[in-house]
From TrEMBL:
It comes from the Bacteria. It comes from Persicobacter diffluens. This is CHAD domain-containing protein. Residues 29-210 form the CHAD domain.
Length: 264
């Protein structure tokens, strides 16, 4: 794989990040937040591949600059998804009636997000070009980078479920890396890995809401009946998602998918 192709992909995403920031953050809709966070995750995946493949610990300055905003938007995204889950499971009105909502329900919550004055010049194309222009990215180095990621995923598969957030990040990173590597032999892997990432995403959304409910109950010193009911519903749904995900992760299809990636 030509390292220039990977560098172009990285530049392309950094440019999209800078472009998206031109729109006032206070006007961002839920889709804007989602799309922006996906861009950041892709940038991190490409940077990981470059660092491992080039055997260099190159500081990811764009990520360090954008991390505070990324985290804050993540909290908003978690809040929005939690509200949707409450509505989906029929507890939204009860939540509001009891006046237990600690986050704003209306779009004013998003508009209240403090503005970050981020100059697009933090993505200095000349700097990154200078870093990589004399490097050769060999196919064997790319495979080594992916193997390193596969190894981490295999360890996390057998880790306690509370570490599935990290597992999801690794699976998503593998998916993004696969999508930029030319060759139709990755199509099969992308399908399986994409399905796994979606299941892990649904599991995480429920996990976040359960944490919020637990904190709420702790602060109230006791659980309301409907909190108990909702927690039970979420637990059942969480177990279903865990079972589906484990079924994939321990299947021959998953083994085949990661083998194709690591060996090709």
């Amino acid at each position: 794989m030509d390292h220039h192709l990977l560098f172009e992909k990285l530049n392309h995403h950094l440019l999209k990040i800078a472009t998206s920031l031109k729109k006032p953050i206070s006007n961002w809709k839920q889709k804007d937040i989602h799309d922006f966070r996906v861009l950041i995750k892709q940038e991190k995946a490409y940077w990981f591949l470059l660092q491992v493949a080039l055997s260099q610990n190159i500081p990811n300055k764009p990520w360090m600059e954008i991390k505070p905003l990324y985290a804050q938007l993540g909290e908003i995204r978690d809040g929005q998804v939690s509200l949707q889950l409450l509505d989906q499971y029929g507890y939204f009105s009860k939540w509001l009636e009891r006046d237990l909502m600690q986050m704003q329900v209306s779009p004013t919550y998003l508009r209240s997000l403090r503005k970050h004055l981020i100059d697009s010049t933090i993505f200095n194309w000349a700097y990154w070009s200078e870093q990589f222009k004399h490097q050769e990215l060999q196919p064997s180095s790319v495979i080594f980078a992916i193997r390193k990621l596969v190894l981490k995923i295999n360890i996390l598969i057998n880790a306690p479920v509370v570490q599935w957030h990290e597992l999801r990040k690794c699976v998503k990173m593998m998916l993004y890396i696969n999508q930029i590597i030319p060759g139709s032999y990755f199509d099969y892997s992308n399908k399986i890995i994409g399905e796994t990432a979606k299941l892990l995403g649904k599991w995480q959304d429920i996990y976040v809401l359960k944490l919020y409910l637990n904190n709420l109950a702790y602060n109230k010193k006791k659980k309301n009946d409907y909190i108990n009911e909702l927690t039970e519903v979420l637990n059942k749904e969480s177990f279903k998602l865990q079972a589906k995900t484990n079924s994939i992760l321990n299947s021959s299809n998953w083994s085949r998918a990661v083998s194709v990636i690591a060996i090709s």
